[in-house]
Design brief:
By secondary structure, this protein is α+β, with helices and mostly antiparallel strands. It folds into two domains: about 130 residues, 2-Layer Sandwich (Phosphorylase Kinase, domain 1); about 230 residues, Transferase(Phosphotransferase) domain 1 (Transferase(Phosphotransferase), domain 1), CATH 1.10.510. About 40% of the residues lie in helices and about 15% in strands. It is built from eleven helices and ten strands. A five-stranded antiparallel beta sheet has the order 1-2-3-5-4, with helices on one face. Strands 6-8-9 form a three-stranded antiparallel beta sheet. α4 packs antiparallel against α6, α4 packs antiparallel against α11 and α6 packs antiparallel against α9. The protein starts with about 20 loop residues before the first strand and ends with a helix.
Protein backbone atom coordinates (compact mmCIF):
# COMPACT_ATOMS: atom_id res chain seq x y z
CA UNK A 1 0.00 0.00 0.00
CA UNK A 2 1.52 3.32 -1.07
CA UNK A 3 1.48 6.56 0.90
CA UNK A 4 -1.40 7.99 -1.14
CA UNK A 5 -3.60 5.02 -0.13
CA UNK A 6 -2.93 5.37 3.56
CA UNK A 7 -4.59 7.49 6.22
CA UNK A 8 -3.62 11.11 6.83
CA UNK A 9 -1.07 10.20 9.49
CA UNK A 10 1.27 9.13 6.67
CA UNK A 11 0.94 12.42 4.76
CA UNK A 12 1.95 15.04 7.28
CA UNK A 13 5.40 16.00 6.02
CA UNK A 14 5.72 19.77 5.63
CA UNK A 15 2.52 20.50 7.54
CA UNK A 16 2.42 23.19 10.23
CA UNK A 17 0.26 22.53 13.27
CA UNK A 18 -1.96 25.21 14.79
CA UNK A 19 0.41 25.40 17.75
CA UNK A 20 3.31 26.27 15.45
CA UNK A 21 5.13 22.94 15.20
CA UNK A 22 6.46 22.17 11.72
CA UNK A 23 6.58 18.51 10.70
CA UNK A 24 10.08 18.08 9.30
CA UNK A 25 10.95 14.45 8.65
CA UNK A 26 9.76 10.87 9.12
CA UNK A 27 11.36 8.68 11.75
CA UNK A 28 12.38 5.17 10.67
CA UNK A 29 10.27 4.94 7.49
CA UNK A 30 10.53 5.90 3.83
CA UNK A 31 8.24 8.87 3.00
CA UNK A 32 7.85 7.64 -0.60
CA UNK A 33 6.70 4.10 0.14
CA UNK A 34 5.90 4.07 3.84
CA UNK A 35 8.19 1.08 4.28
CA UNK A 36 10.11 0.72 7.50
CA UNK A 37 13.82 1.44 7.04
CA UNK A 38 14.85 1.64 10.67
CA UNK A 39 13.37 1.58 14.13
CA UNK A 40 13.43 4.36 16.66
CA UNK A 41 10.95 4.38 19.48
CA UNK A 42 10.72 7.94 20.72
CA UNK A 43 7.55 6.77 22.48
CA UNK A 44 5.79 5.65 19.38
CA UNK A 45 3.98 2.44 20.08
CA UNK A 46 1.70 0.51 17.74
CA UNK A 47 -0.72 2.01 15.20
CA UNK A 48 1.10 5.33 14.99
CA UNK A 49 3.37 7.14 12.55
CA UNK A 50 6.46 8.95 13.93
CA UNK A 51 7.93 12.27 12.83
CA UNK A 52 10.45 14.86 13.96
CA UNK A 53 8.89 18.30 14.43
CA UNK A 54 10.39 21.69 15.20
CA UNK A 55 9.20 24.93 16.77
CA UNK A 56 11.32 27.99 17.59
CA UNK A 57 14.48 25.95 17.11
CA UNK A 58 13.32 23.15 19.42
CA UNK A 59 13.00 19.68 17.95
CA UNK A 60 10.52 17.13 19.28
CA UNK A 61 8.88 13.80 18.43
CA UNK A 62 5.36 13.59 17.00
CA UNK A 63 3.27 10.44 17.21
CA UNK A 64 0.42 10.58 14.68
CA UNK A 65 -2.39 8.08 15.09
CA UNK A 66 -2.77 5.88 12.01
CA UNK A 67 -6.38 5.31 10.92
CA UNK A 68 -5.46 3.09 7.93
CA UNK A 69 -6.42 -0.12 9.69
CA UNK A 70 -9.77 1.33 10.75
CA UNK A 71 -10.75 2.18 7.19
CA UNK A 72 -10.38 -1.45 6.10
CA UNK A 73 -12.21 -2.92 9.10
CA UNK A 74 -15.54 -4.72 8.81
CA UNK A 75 -17.08 -2.15 11.16
CA UNK A 76 -15.23 1.08 10.34
CA UNK A 77 -17.12 3.20 12.88
CA UNK A 78 -16.49 0.80 15.75
CA UNK A 79 -12.79 0.58 14.89
CA UNK A 80 -12.49 4.37 14.70
CA UNK A 81 -14.22 4.72 18.06
CA UNK A 82 -11.81 2.21 19.59
CA UNK A 83 -8.74 4.02 18.25
CA UNK A 84 -10.13 7.39 19.29
CA UNK A 85 -10.90 6.15 22.80
CA UNK A 86 -7.38 4.75 23.16
CA UNK A 87 -5.85 8.05 22.02
CA UNK A 88 -8.06 10.11 24.34
CA UNK A 89 -7.27 7.83 27.28
CA UNK A 90 -3.52 7.98 26.68
CA UNK A 91 -3.65 11.78 26.38
CA UNK A 92 -5.55 12.05 29.68
CA UNK A 93 -3.04 9.78 31.46
CA UNK A 94 -0.13 11.78 30.06
CA UNK A 95 -1.72 14.99 31.39
CA UNK A 96 -1.95 13.46 34.86
CA UNK A 97 1.71 12.46 34.62
CA UNK A 98 2.70 15.98 33.59
CA UNK A 99 0.55 17.60 36.30
CA UNK A 100 2.13 15.24 38.85
CA UNK A 101 5.67 16.24 37.76
CA UNK A 102 6.70 12.69 36.91
CA UNK A 103 10.27 13.44 35.90
CA UNK A 104 11.11 9.87 34.96
CA UNK A 105 8.13 9.38 32.67
CA UNK A 106 7.97 10.72 29.11
CA UNK A 107 5.01 13.11 29.03
CA UNK A 108 3.34 14.93 26.14
CA UNK A 109 4.27 18.55 25.48
CA UNK A 110 1.42 19.08 23.00
CA UNK A 111 -1.53 17.24 21.50
CA UNK A 112 -4.30 17.81 19.00
CA UNK A 113 -5.57 16.78 15.58
CA UNK A 114 -4.70 17.80 12.02
CA UNK A 115 -6.51 17.05 8.77
CA UNK A 116 -4.87 16.83 5.33
CA UNK A 117 -8.04 16.27 3.31
CA UNK A 118 -11.85 16.17 3.36
CA UNK A 119 -12.28 12.50 4.28
CA UNK A 120 -12.50 10.90 7.68
CA UNK A 121 -9.27 8.98 7.18
CA UNK A 122 -7.46 12.22 6.37
CA UNK A 123 -7.61 13.21 10.03
CA UNK A 124 -4.64 12.48 12.28
CA UNK A 125 -4.82 12.86 16.05
CA UNK A 126 -1.33 13.37 17.45
CA UNK A 127 0.81 13.66 20.56
CA UNK A 128 4.16 15.47 20.75
CA UNK A 129 6.94 14.40 23.10
CA UNK A 130 10.43 15.47 24.04
CA UNK A 131 12.88 14.07 21.49
CA UNK A 132 14.94 11.24 22.98
CA UNK A 133 18.46 10.15 22.08
CA UNK A 134 17.13 6.61 21.59
CA UNK A 135 15.97 3.57 23.52
CA UNK A 136 18.23 1.46 25.74
CA UNK A 137 18.34 -1.46 23.29
CA UNK A 138 20.50 0.60 20.99
CA UNK A 139 22.26 2.81 23.45
CA UNK A 140 23.70 -0.10 25.41
CA UNK A 141 25.43 -1.40 22.28
CA UNK A 142 27.79 1.57 22.53
CA UNK A 143 28.81 0.72 26.11
CA UNK A 144 31.37 -1.81 27.26
CA UNK A 145 33.24 -2.97 30.34
CA UNK A 146 32.66 -1.28 33.69
CA UNK A 147 31.15 1.78 32.00
CA UNK A 148 28.38 -0.48 30.70
CA UNK A 149 27.43 -1.71 34.18
CA UNK A 150 27.25 1.79 35.67
CA UNK A 151 25.26 2.97 32.66
CA UNK A 152 22.54 0.35 32.81
CA UNK A 153 22.25 0.46 36.58
CA UNK A 154 21.49 4.18 36.30
CA UNK A 155 18.90 3.25 33.65
CA UNK A 156 17.41 0.67 36.06
CA UNK A 157 17.26 3.27 38.84
CA UNK A 158 15.47 5.79 36.64
CA UNK A 159 13.10 3.13 35.26
CA UNK A 160 12.19 2.07 38.79
CA UNK A 161 11.56 5.68 39.81
CA UNK A 162 9.35 6.18 36.75
CA UNK A 163 7.36 3.03 37.41
CA UNK A 164 6.99 3.99 41.08
CA UNK A 165 5.72 7.44 40.10
CA UNK A 166 3.07 5.84 37.92
CA UNK A 167 2.03 3.33 40.58
CA UNK A 168 1.53 6.04 43.17
CA UNK A 169 -1.18 7.50 40.93
CA UNK A 170 -2.81 4.13 40.33
CA UNK A 171 -1.33 3.78 36.83
CA UNK A 172 0.20 0.49 35.73
CA UNK A 173 2.40 0.58 32.64
CA UNK A 174 1.77 -2.99 31.37
CA UNK A 175 4.35 -2.74 28.58
CA UNK A 176 7.72 -1.95 30.14
CA UNK A 177 10.46 -3.33 27.91
CA UNK A 178 13.82 -2.12 26.54
CA UNK A 179 12.22 -0.26 23.63
CA UNK A 180 10.10 1.72 26.08
CA UNK A 181 12.94 3.00 28.23
CA UNK A 182 14.42 6.08 26.55
CA UNK A 183 17.66 7.98 27.03
CA UNK A 184 17.88 11.77 27.22
CA UNK A 185 20.69 14.28 27.65
CA UNK A 186 23.46 12.05 26.40
CA UNK A 187 22.54 9.15 28.68
CA UNK A 188 22.31 11.26 31.81
CA UNK A 189 18.57 10.70 32.21
CA UNK A 190 16.29 7.76 31.37
CA UNK A 191 12.51 7.87 31.23
CA UNK A 192 9.74 5.30 30.94
CA UNK A 193 7.77 5.85 27.75
CA UNK A 194 4.73 4.72 25.75
CA UNK A 195 1.68 4.63 28.01
CA UNK A 196 -0.52 3.43 25.17
CA UNK A 197 -1.17 0.09 26.92
CA UNK A 198 -1.45 1.35 30.49
CA UNK A 199 -4.39 1.09 32.87
CA UNK A 200 -5.48 3.67 35.43
CA UNK A 201 -7.24 2.46 38.54
CA UNK A 202 -10.75 3.84 38.86
CA UNK A 203 -10.86 5.12 35.27
CA UNK A 204 -12.26 3.23 32.28
CA UNK A 205 -9.42 2.01 30.09
CA UNK A 206 -9.58 0.61 26.54
CA UNK A 207 -7.47 -2.29 27.80
CA UNK A 208 -8.94 -2.95 31.23
CA UNK A 209 -10.70 -6.18 30.21
CA UNK A 210 -7.50 -7.72 28.87
CA UNK A 211 -5.64 -10.05 31.24
CA UNK A 212 -2.44 -8.40 30.00
CA UNK A 213 -2.34 -5.44 27.61
CA UNK A 214 1.36 -5.39 26.75
CA UNK A 215 3.70 -7.33 24.50
CA UNK A 216 3.17 -11.04 25.16
CA UNK A 217 6.90 -11.71 24.64
CA UNK A 218 7.49 -9.94 27.97
CA UNK A 219 4.45 -11.25 29.85
CA UNK A 220 4.92 -13.11 33.16
CA UNK A 221 4.21 -16.85 33.32
CA UNK A 222 0.85 -16.61 35.09
CA UNK A 223 -0.44 -14.72 32.04
CA UNK A 224 1.11 -17.12 29.53
CA UNK A 225 -0.40 -20.11 31.30
CA UNK A 226 -3.88 -18.63 31.46
CA UNK A 227 -4.23 -17.66 35.11
CA UNK A 228 -6.29 -14.51 35.63
CA UNK A 229 -5.93 -13.01 39.07
CA UNK A 230 -9.44 -11.73 39.91
CA UNK A 231 -7.88 -8.73 41.68
CA UNK A 232 -7.21 -6.70 38.54
CA UNK A 233 -4.93 -4.04 40.02
CA UNK A 234 -2.94 -6.64 41.92
CA UNK A 235 -2.52 -8.61 38.69
CA UNK A 236 -1.29 -5.57 36.78
CA UNK A 237 1.14 -4.48 39.46
CA UNK A 238 2.67 -7.95 39.62
CA UNK A 239 3.06 -7.83 35.83
CA UNK A 240 4.91 -4.51 36.12
CA UNK A 241 7.25 -5.99 38.75
CA UNK A 242 8.04 -8.90 36.43
CA UNK A 243 8.84 -6.62 33.51
CA UNK A 244 11.05 -4.38 35.64
CA UNK A 245 13.07 -7.37 36.86
CA UNK A 246 13.22 -8.66 33.29
CA UNK A 247 15.25 -5.56 32.40
CA UNK A 248 18.10 -6.87 34.60
CA UNK A 249 18.29 -10.05 32.52
CA UNK A 250 18.12 -8.02 29.32
CA UNK A 251 21.00 -5.75 30.32
CA UNK A 252 23.19 -8.66 31.41
CA UNK A 253 22.18 -11.50 29.08
CA UNK A 254 20.63 -9.72 26.10
CA UNK A 255 17.14 -11.20 26.53
CA UNK A 256 14.27 -10.68 28.94
CA UNK A 257 13.19 -13.20 31.56
CA UNK A 258 10.20 -14.48 29.61
CA UNK A 259 12.24 -15.50 26.58
CA UNK A 260 15.04 -16.99 28.69
CA UNK A 261 12.53 -19.00 30.72
CA UNK A 262 10.75 -20.30 27.63
CA UNK A 263 14.09 -21.39 26.19
CA UNK A 264 14.53 -23.73 29.17
CA UNK A 265 11.26 -25.56 28.49
CA UNK A 266 10.45 -28.43 26.17
CA UNK A 267 7.46 -28.25 23.82
CA UNK A 268 5.15 -30.26 26.14
CA UNK A 269 5.85 -27.75 28.92
CA UNK A 270 5.57 -24.51 26.96
CA UNK A 271 2.37 -22.45 26.80
CA UNK A 272 0.29 -22.89 23.66
CA UNK A 273 0.80 -19.21 22.76
CA UNK A 274 4.49 -19.98 22.16
CA UNK A 275 4.10 -23.22 20.24
CA UNK A 276 3.82 -25.47 23.28
CA UNK A 277 1.34 -28.14 24.27
CA UNK A 278 0.82 -27.52 27.98
CA UNK A 279 -2.84 -27.58 28.99
CA UNK A 280 -2.54 -28.17 32.72
CA UNK A 281 -2.95 -24.58 33.87
CA UNK A 282 -0.63 -22.31 35.81
CA UNK A 283 -0.23 -23.74 39.32
CA UNK A 284 0.89 -27.26 38.28
CA UNK A 285 3.70 -25.82 36.11
CA UNK A 286 5.08 -23.43 38.76
CA UNK A 287 7.50 -25.96 40.40
CA UNK A 288 9.13 -26.66 37.03
CA UNK A 289 9.28 -22.93 36.26
CA UNK A 290 11.00 -22.36 39.61
CA UNK A 291 13.62 -24.98 38.74
CA UNK A 292 14.27 -23.37 35.37
CA UNK A 293 14.35 -19.93 36.96
CA UNK A 294 16.98 -21.09 39.45
CA UNK A 295 19.19 -21.98 36.49
CA UNK A 296 18.63 -18.52 35.01
CA UNK A 297 19.73 -16.96 38.28
CA UNK A 298 22.90 -19.07 38.29
CA UNK A 299 23.64 -17.95 34.74
CA UNK A 300 23.02 -14.34 35.77
CA UNK A 301 25.32 -14.73 38.76
CA UNK A 302 28.04 -16.20 36.53
CA UNK A 303 27.80 -13.34 34.05
CA UNK A 304 28.05 -10.84 36.91
CA UNK A 305 30.82 -12.72 38.72
CA UNK A 306 33.38 -9.90 38.48
CA UNK A 307 30.94 -7.21 39.58
CA UNK A 308 30.91 -5.73 43.09
CA UNK A 309 27.11 -5.60 42.93
CA UNK A 310 26.52 -9.18 41.74
CA UNK A 311 24.93 -10.62 44.88
CA UNK A 312 22.41 -7.82 45.34
CA UNK A 313 21.47 -7.71 41.67
CA UNK A 314 20.80 -11.44 41.51
CA UNK A 315 18.70 -11.16 44.66
CA UNK A 316 16.67 -8.29 43.18
CA UNK A 317 16.13 -10.27 39.97
CA UNK A 318 14.98 -13.30 41.97
CA UNK A 319 12.42 -11.20 43.84
CA UNK A 320 11.05 -9.18 40.94
CA UNK A 321 10.81 -12.12 38.52
CA UNK A 322 9.68 -14.94 40.76
CA UNK A 323 7.57 -17.24 38.55
CA UNK A 324 5.10 -17.54 41.42
CA UNK A 325 3.24 -14.26 41.19
CA UNK A 326 2.30 -14.43 44.88
CA UNK A 327 5.99 -14.36 45.86
CA UNK A 328 6.93 -11.47 43.56
CA UNK A 329 8.23 -8.27 45.12
CA UNK A 330 10.44 -7.28 48.02
CA UNK A 331 10.11 -9.77 50.93
CA UNK A 332 9.94 -7.05 53.58
CA UNK A 333 7.11 -5.31 51.77
CA UNK A 334 5.22 -8.57 51.20
CA UNK A 335 5.56 -9.52 54.86
CA UNK A 336 4.25 -6.24 56.24
CA UNK A 337 0.90 -4.56 56.15
CA UNK A 338 2.06 -1.88 53.72
CA UNK A 339 1.86 -1.96 49.94
CA UNK A 340 3.35 -5.32 48.93
CA UNK A 341 3.98 -4.03 45.41
CA UNK A 342 5.97 -1.02 46.52
CA UNK A 343 9.13 -0.28 44.55
CA UNK A 344 10.65 2.10 47.08
CA UNK A 345 13.27 -0.37 48.28
CA UNK A 346 14.30 -1.08 44.69
CA UNK A 347 14.51 2.65 43.97
CA UNK A 348 17.04 2.93 46.80
CA UNK A 349 18.82 -0.28 45.82
CA UNK A 350 19.41 0.61 42.16
CA UNK A 351 20.43 4.15 43.10
CA UNK A 352 23.07 2.82 45.50
CA UNK A 353 24.30 0.09 43.14
CA UNK A 354 24.62 2.54 40.24
CA UNK A 355 26.83 4.75 42.38
CA UNK A 356 28.97 1.79 43.48
CA UNK A 357 29.38 0.74 39.85
CA UNK A 358 30.26 4.32 38.83
CA UNK A 359 32.99 4.45 41.47
CA UNK A 360 34.46 1.18 40.17
CA UNK A 361 34.32 1.88 36.44
CA UNK A 362 37.77 3.38 36.06
Amino acid sequence: MGIEERAGAWRLLGQTLESGWVILEPVGWDPRSGDSIDHYNGTGGNFSVPYVVEKNGRRAFLKAIDLTRAMTAVDVLAELQMISAAHTFEASVLKICADSSMDRVVVAIDSGQISVGPNLQDKAPYLIFELADGDVRRRIQKKSGKVRLAWWLRAMHHATVGLSQLHKRGITHQDLKPSNLLSFGGDEVFKVSDLGRCTWEGHPSPHELLPFAGDQKYAPPEILYGYINPQAQDRRLRCDLWMLGSMIFFFVRGFGTTQLLLNELQVPQKPVLFGGAWNGGYRPIVPLLQTCFSKLLLDLEFDLRDSPVSRELVKAASELCNPDHELRGHPLMRAGSRNSHSLERYVSLFDRLSKVAAQNRS
